[in-house]
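User: Quick sanity check before I run a bigger batch. Here is a single chain. Can you write out its predicted 3D structure?
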Amino acid sequence: MNTLPGDPKPFQLDRSTRDEIALFLAEAALAAGPAVMEEYERGGDARSKEDGSPVTAADHRAEAIIVRYLARTVPFTPVIAEESTAAGAQISAVGRFLLVDPLDGTREFIARNGEFTINVALVEGGVPIAGAVYAPAIGRLWMGGERAFVCETNLRPELPDEGTRRRIMTRPAPSSLIALASRSHRDAETESFLNRLPIGEARSAGSSLKFCVVAEGQGDVYPRFGPTMEWDTAAADAVLRAAGGVVLDTAGSPLLYGKFDRGLRNGSFVAWGDATAASRFGYC
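Assistant: Done. Predicted structure follows.
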């Protein structure tokens, strides 16, 4: 059964700071955690969507919980979620909207390596101004608004106490970079890009965790040249920006959101922990 914790109250986006919005989004992501972990422990089968990507019962259960939570708390803000969009829901909004990826890293979920996340973001004027990334299998939650934070969780659908939240910031790019690459989508273009940089170490990770590693100052660059959707990246992009990093498109501009004419598909991008590193290393 897809239940909501307690009785969520209406939330005033216009009267809240970005940090307050990030906490609100984190609550929405946390609400779906128990259902996702029930399915993870159950080990149910996956099926393929029309685009060939996998989907599980966890995707659908998590999305239903989050969308219902948002409908009750911010009823006049459009919500665009991955699975309802895949089922044919119209994707359009004006100015401000919420993006939901109920299970980012479904392949990692199926592989049972724990590297999957629940992502919720608020986009305004083409910018992800706040986001929450929750990794229930490893018990970690990242939030980004004006500032970025990480905390440990215990699978309860309530926010951890303020005292347990640790502020995170990216680091200045060192002479030898730590690169993050997709565990399931590494390709020749990624290898070619990394070969042009002074990479001292390359790590693989699933889902939005790559952004979060960079946001915590434990990595420096994450390139992605394969296809992604805006709901894949928005929440983690907000966390990285709040931590001091940047996500740039191939023209060297910050990645934009609300590309409805492209079906919310992203182009290639590179996430940098040090916002000055792109020009220093000749990316733009």
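The chain has a mean pLDDT of 92.

User: Great, the batch can go ahead then.
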